[in-house]
Amino acid sequence: MSTLVADWSEDQKAAFGRAPVVFKHGMAETGLFEDKALARLLDDYPSELYDINLFDFDAEGRSTMRTGTRGRLPGCEVLEGVKAGRVWVQLRRVEAWYPQLGELIGEAFGELCAQAPGFRPVQLNGQLILSAPGAKVPFHADAPGVALFHLRGRKRIWIYPNDEAHMPQRGMENIALKQQTEDLPYRRSMDEAAQVFDLEPGLAVTWPLHAPHRIENLGTFNLSLSVDFQTWGSRLTNGAHYANGILRRWGVPIAPMHRTPMAVRAGLWAASLALKRLPLVPDRIAGIERSFELKGVKA
Ligand SMILES: [Fe+2]
User: How far is the CA of 142 from the centre of ligand 1 (A)?
Assistant: First the structure.
């Protein structure tokens, strides 16, 4: 009997891994996500695991991102800054650094494994995301699988097919090679192919590996727990993208990933482990500068 994740229907089970799945969860009722608990967490959280981002959008919905630091603000003022601005705060590795939440994540994924056919994650990473009423997360894709547990406020998510038209394979290779942050070329017309969901507290969503998505908050302060997971399938696929990215730079023709069998992906993944030890491609993301200090950013 599940306690954190509501039982899945046959339709949800059949869709898992092929299409987005929305499901109910009970994390929001644990008391871990009220203002006081959040302010205390923000006070104590290690600064190297604490990201503050501000996005500016053009008319086509394309974004530029500025990355900042919390400065010397106490947690309660960071929280007020988020509620007032366009900022987006992310606490990384909460599965390890927020032990009570780490336990909940373990429990929830235990229940998910019992529901989702063949689901066997080998690694979990949790991010707690606090975002402003007007915040948007631009169109992007994540290398690992993701389950997004919504906890406070309302947000809308657009999830797109992970085909070549929406998620070019080269883009995934660049993400694997850390040549770009996960933002991708986006046009409004792509929305026609998206599935759109409004998330309320107590709803969670997961989608097929590498499906691009974007998010808009619906006028309220938002709190979500995003859990990245790797399975052996996602690990081999990401390793294969890494190796393909290098091979493509060497002029080797690359097969489409959806026609690359898992055994071949495993070979490419093994090659990627060796390639990662060679300093072939400098990591461009580590060089992104932090360009503002949070002092109560207003919309
Ligand atoms: Fe994402």
Answer: 5
Helix, strand, coil percentages, rounded to 5, for the chain: 35, 25, 35
What would the mean pLDDT of 144-158 be, rounded to a whole number? 97
Pick 25 or 1 by higher pLDDT. 25
Ligand 1 center from residue 251 Cα (angstroms): 31
Helix 75-84 / helix 35-44 crossing angle, nearest 10 deg: 120
Distance 257 CA to ligand 1 centre (A): 20
If you measure from the C-alpha of residue 117 to the centroid of ligand 1, how many angstroms do you get, rounded to a whole number? 23
Q: Is the pTM of this model over 0.85?
A: yes
How many angstroms does the Cα of residue 94 sit away from the middle of ligand 1?
A: 16
Q: What is the CA radius of gyration of the chain?
A: 19
**Which CATH code of 2.60.120.650, 3.40.710.10, 3.90.190.20, 2.60.40.4070 fits the domain covering 10-231?**
2.60.120.650
Helices and strands (H and E) in the chain: how many:
8, 13
CA of 252 to the centre of ligand 1 (A): 30
Structure tokens, 41: 């967490």
Give the helix ranges, DSSP H, for 68-178. 75-84, 94-97, 99-115, 169-176
- How far is it, in rounded angstroms, from Cα 247 to Cα 41? 44
Domain ranges for the chain, please list them. 10-231
